[in-house]
Amino acid sequence: MPISAERSLLIIVVVAAVTFLTRLLPFVVFPKGKEIPRVIRYLGRVLPPAVIGMLVIYCFKGVQVTAYPFGLPELIAGAAVVALHVWKRNNLLSIGVGTVLYMVLVQVVFA
Hints:
- Helices cover about 75% and strands about 0% of the residues.
- The chain has helices spanning about 5-30, 40-60, 70-90, 90-110.
């Protein structure tokens, strides 16, 4: 069933409004000069590593180490991501190169 142009426009407007409001909310709740509560500072410090940890677990959850290629593409690409990130400290570079490397390993090397 095709979506009408009006419905598509409505979806775009709602998504844009929600995105704008989520970006605006911290500035409204914590205006300049107002001290940020300790719990918010704590969450800002611990959540990014926790999210990365969950993403790593999610990425490696389906790896078959008992069958060919024994998880080698995942291990090689994961090691490349870590090495590049430690070296360059650039998220986009390390994740992008790791993704491309994994695709090459899976589709060309270990095919």
